[in-house]
Every structure is written in C-alpha cells, then in structure tokens.
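User: Structure please.
Assistant: Input sequence and predicted structure:
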Amino acid sequence: MRHARLIAMAICGALSLGWGQGAFAQSAEDIKKGIDQYREMLQDGNPADLTVAKGEGLWKKKQGPHDASLEQCDLGKGPGVVAGAYAELPRYFADTGRVMDAESRIVHCIAVLQGRDATALAAKPFSGGGQPQTELESLVAYIVDESRGVPVNLPQQHPEEIASYQRGEKAFFYRAGPYDFACASCHSVDDQRIRLQELPNLTEAESAQRAFTTWPAYRVSQGAMRTMQWRMYDCFRQQRFPEMIYGSQVSIDLITFLGVKAKGAPMDSPAIKR
C-alpha cells in the first residue's frame, strides 16, 4: 500500500505540473521525471532484496532425493561459479546440446543435481497476486544479483548461439495473432508509449541495453519480482499470441536477441519497474 501511495503521489505531482502548462503533450517529460523520481526513492529499499536473500538460501539448501544443494550448478562459468554468470546468459551448454537461459538452466540443475521433479516447478514458475515469490523467481533473483555491475557479454561463437540470435531476431519482427502484432510493433519506434509507459526501441543498442540490464525487476504494480521469462510471457499475452511455454525455444531465442543487442552494458538488476 505504501508503494501504491508513493507512485500515485509521484504521478499526480507530475500531472499537475503538466496540466499547469495547459497541454498534456507538454507534460509528458514532467510525468517521466516524476516517475523516475519515484523509482529513485525506492532504489535503496528495493523489495526484491528480500527475494535475493530467499534465493541465496534456496541455492545453498540441500533438497530432493539426492539431498543436494545447487551450489555445483554450472551456469556457464564452471560448477559452482555464480558471480557474473547471468551477464553471459543465454549461452550454449554442451551437456544439454542447446542454448539455455538462466531460468531453463536452473530448472535443469534442480532436476540433475537434486533429483527433483523440475517439471512441476516449471508448471507454475510465477507467483500470483499476493502470493509469496516462487522458488524459481527467488533463485533467479539471487543469480542475477550476483552479476550486478558486470557487463553483458552473451557468447556468439557456437553455431547454436548464432542460430538462437537469428531466430530471436526473426521472432521479434514476426507479425501474427488477431491484431497482427509483433514485438516490433511496440518496440522498434522512437518516442512511443502506452499510457504513461515508455516503450523502448529495442532495435537500438542504448535502449536494448537499458531494458535488458534492468530485468528481472520488482514490479510495484504487482508487488512482486518478475523474471525475464515472465517479461517474454507477458509480451506474448499482450500481443494475444498463444500462451508462451516457460523455457520454450522462442522465449530463449528472444532473450538471446535482446542480450546480444545489449552487449557491454553493466547489469543493474533486480531493478524497480512501475
């Protein structure tokens, strides 16, 4: 509730500045400043920090038939290496023969190292309204927090990594569904917005960097930390596409496309979103 009141105050303050100028168009920049100020107020007390702490505990907790933790999970930098790993995902893994993002890799490690039914976890990866963060959301929060400040550097040497990027690019521009939408319909034009929300032009490196490095993020409007898989899922929902399967090829390919575009920018996640 406190978060909701804060954002309402920030937006109302920005709106009052704009309407004082006599035109909504003139107030757009003031609205943006108001929302940015609100986000800055919350950065030092990001509620996602609690999810990060929960995720670290789960990472080190022994579970499943193998009575093992996830501390020997190989996220691409060797078994047990967590620091900086998220900034280089998705990437190709020889043990599975495919490109995996952070979330699909975590699911894989849960199954292999702990012997648990990862399918059941993946069936409900996202928390609902008012519910505690799921195990997968918490683990992702911990993993991404360990890459804060690390430059994004998705590998593009293996043929499967290159193919993933190419498929992701094709998926980004693919138009379909009842409204003939594509990801690019909202995210390939400058200065476009939905209501008060800016829509970054993800075809440009600077916007792609800003977007990729701030996901996962705590969504104030939902009172929960949301992962990059959730972001892809929700974009498909808004396009009225068929429901995206968690960890599906198209989700990983889209994340690869965005991650390659974001190369060189330091990770700053979990961040705070509206």
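The first helix runs from residue 2 to 20.
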